[in-house]
Recover the amino acids of this structure.
């Protein structure tokens, strides 16, 4: 007598026992017994304990006295709470506008019910998202469909395991910026400007300033990098604020007259055209913003080099004039004597 099992969860076939010799599932602890009484025609295979993975077709095969194979196959149902199998859809990336099907394969008896959810608790759109059985179909996806999806399997026994995957939607970058920001120049005070940059994969961000030169005020750009003058920062906002976005901040340290004008932010992502945003920095008579940093004295007007030199020359001439007057007075006094 030969016992075999066609297991459903992984499609593998096992020869479990031949006569009373057990061939499988002996590690780490034997859990099978093949029994045949000497005075009986009954053959028994005992699972102790029964495992959820034993779910499948169990076959008993023997050879009769006429050397003919006789077999009997029965479905071995294992009553258990569901478990989601590794063959389910894993993390996936697609382009905006494409369609995709997410598959949740679950094992359990009775047959499990499948429910799909989005981890951010946002309801699944009934327009272009539809669940059919254990599959979730998404048609013509947009960037808003990006995120974590959860597959929940349950049956009468209870709730089984939970399967999560990330759906990433590749889309062209776009930028939201302040229109303008004001600050008083030459007051030893900083100013910052902010833009939200969207895109996946995460775009590369750069800043530049537009300047003019010459009698014709010819326009040219200068690239901005971190220095004593500029500080560029990028942070990931809370998911409640935005997803697949970066908050880019440019701080201009100790704003001067030459810093006023137009600033441009550029976002580039592989496979997509670049995107540009613009902010104007204009001058104000009073300080508008304060950002603390090690050199920021805050709203104290910077005197020009010319006025400082004039003060030095003024003190020099005053000192020499007083000295000259005292010298004349002393000379006249001695002459009279």
């Amino acid at each position: 007598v030969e016992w075999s099992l066609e297991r459903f969860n992984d499609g593998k076939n096992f020869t479990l026992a031949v006569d009373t010799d057990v061939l499988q599932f002996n590690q780490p602890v034997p859990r099978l017994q093949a029994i045949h009484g000497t005075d009986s025609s009954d053959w028994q295979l005992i699972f102790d304990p029964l495992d959820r993975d034993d779910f499948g077709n169990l076959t008993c095969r023997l050879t009769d006295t006429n050397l003919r194979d006789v077999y009997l196959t029965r479905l071995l149902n294992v009553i258990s709470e569901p478990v989601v199998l590794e063959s389910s859809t894993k993390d996936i990336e697609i382009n905006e506008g494409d369609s995709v099907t997410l598959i949740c394969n679950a094992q359990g008896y009775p047959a499990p019910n499948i429910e799909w959810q989005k981890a951010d608790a946002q309801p699944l759109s009934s327009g272009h998202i539809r669940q059919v059985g254990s599959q979730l179909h998404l048609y013509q996806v947009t960037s808003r469909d990006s995120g974590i999806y959860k597959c929940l399997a349950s049956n009468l026994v209870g709730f089984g395991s939970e399967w999560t995957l990330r759906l990433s939607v590749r889309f062209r970058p776009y930028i939201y910026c302040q229109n303008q920001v004001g600050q008083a120049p030459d007051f030893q005070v900083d100013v910052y400007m902010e833009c939200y940059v969207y895109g996946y994969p995460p775009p590369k961000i750069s800043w530049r300033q537009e300047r003019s030169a010459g009698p014709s005020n010819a326009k040219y750009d200068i690239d901005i990098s971190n220095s004593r003058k500029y500080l560029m920062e990028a942070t990931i906002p809370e998911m409640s604020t935005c997803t697949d976005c970066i908050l880019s901040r440019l701080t201009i340290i100790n704003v001067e007259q030459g810093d006023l004008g137009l600033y441009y932010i550029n976002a580039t992502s592989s496979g997509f055209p670049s995107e540009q945003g613009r902010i104007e920095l204009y001058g104000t008579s009073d300080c508008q913003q304060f950002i603390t940093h090690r050199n920021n004295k805050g709203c104290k007007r910077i005197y020009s080099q010319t006025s400082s030199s004039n003060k030095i020359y003024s003190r020099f001439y005053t000192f020499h004039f007083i000295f000259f007057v005292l010298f004349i007075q002393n000379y006249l006094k001695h002459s009279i004597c």
Remarks:
- The domain at 82-170 is CATH 2.60.40.10 (Immunoglobulin-like).
- The chain has a mean pLDDT of 85.
- The longest strand covers residues 159-177.
- DSSP finds one helix and 24 strands in the chain.
